[in-house]
Structures are given as C-alpha cells and as structure tokens.
Amino acid sequence: MTDDDLVARAREGDTDAFGELVDRHRSAVYRVARAALPMQADAEDAAQDAFVLAYRRLGTFRGEASFKTWLLTITWRQAINRRRSLSGWWRRIRSDIDAADPAIERPAGDPSPEAVVVTGELNRAIRFEIRRLSPKLRDALLLAHAGEHSYEEIAAMLGAPLGTIKWRIAEARRVIRLKLRERGLSDVG
Hints:
Arc Repressor Mutant, subunit A
C-alpha cells in the first residue's frame, strides 16, 4: 500500500493507516529533528509533536509533494521552533557533525596524544564556526549532514529553491574551511 493510499484511509478516520505512516517515516522524522536539536530527548519530543500536528493537519495535505516531504517539512519547523525556545543548545551540539565532512583531514590509525589534542581543537573550532554561520547557511548544512535527505527534500523542508540550497551548503562549507585556515588549524580542501 502506498503512502497516498494510507493518507486517503487516514483522512477517512482509519487511525491504523496513520499509524502505518508513522511507522514508515519514524526514522526519517527523527533524523530531521535531530539535525536541528542536539539532545535526543528534544528531538524525540519534536518528532512526536510533528506527528501529532501532521495528523491534525492531514486534511490540508494537497499532494503537491510526497507525504514524506510534507511530513519532514512539518518536522523541521517543529524542531526549529523547539530549538529557538531552548537556551544554550549550541553548547551541546553534537560532536560528530564535523565527522560527516570528508574534506576535513584527520589522523589515521591510533592517534598520538598530539593528534588527539589537535583533533579536539579542530572539532571545537568547527562547532564554533558552525554556530557563527547565518541561520540559513547553518540549517541547510546541518540537514545535509544529518541523514539521508536529498537536496530536493531539504529544499522542500526549508521552503527554498533547490539551487539556493545547494549554494547554501557549499557556501557554509567554504566559509568554515576559510575560517579554519585563518586559524591555522587545517589544510582542508
């Protein structure tokens, strides 16, 4: 059964059909929420809020995008609203965001104590520079590195044209690399 079939059944009051949609998209919804919210509990709450809101607004789903994209857009907005209400969330940003960028050079094998220090300093610098990005660049970058979302899905979630999203992600990476070079921390691509 397709998502469209399940949406039609859910609109007719079939809660099991909506439950199936939740089961199908739970992990994608969580990954989007986690991209905006570093704390697991906050991301879980935002994901739950997104499912509740999607259920309430199911009648407004027009089918212009896939149900998944529509749901992820709701999720992203819920997560951003929650993020705005949390103070100091950037202090707790996930330390693995930088690991998703292959342009950053890292020591191979068992790192020496010096390499551990340098890597820690590089990680802190990357997190600092991500915090300094404009919200539009930062959000696009975090979504791109959060999971398995296509640029098209990110464009739909953020309500921006595909070309704009591609530029924002490339620009965010360029700015971070430039700032790291200025600090003398890395010879990144």
